[in-house]
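Fold this sequence, please.
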Amino acid sequence: SHYSDFNPNLPFAETDSTKDIINKISGLQIESILDTADLIDIPILEKAVDKLINANTIGIFGISPNTLLGHLFRRKMQTIGRAVTVPSVDESGIFSASLNSSDCAVIISYSGNKEKREPMQFIRTLQENGVPLIGITSGGDNYIRRSIDCVLTISSREKLYSKISNFSTEASII
């Protein structure tokens, strides 16, 4: 029922006024938040919260722009006294190998596929080290869903490549 008035891939036209663009982007983000709220599986969310609460170290793995969103999460967690690390792409491998069963890793990927690419390539190492995992990805079957028992679903109405920006996806991940 969401996105009835918005195209998440091209939310505004070149001919739209500035006010129209503001209204369309804000409306799209509101719809994305509502769509995400509808997708939340409460028991899975509670499981994710337990993993985060009990972790000594929380690591966020993704590629841009998801790492940028990870930094927003890190900042929010810091305000409540919880340390979160968002390793740079070139440090993600060594950081994933340093985590253990007392930590937690969050893997963020829109598609959740391509197990040999970042951030999915770290899942096996993290599992071998007994690290509790949380996935954040789109709906449907993908590598993250097949590999991680605690997966939060993001709104995935944007097309992966034929969009002007990640307005909807970023609002959903946040």
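Helices lie at 18-39, 42-53, 66-78, 92-98, 123-128, 143-147, 167-173. The radius of gyration is 17 Å.
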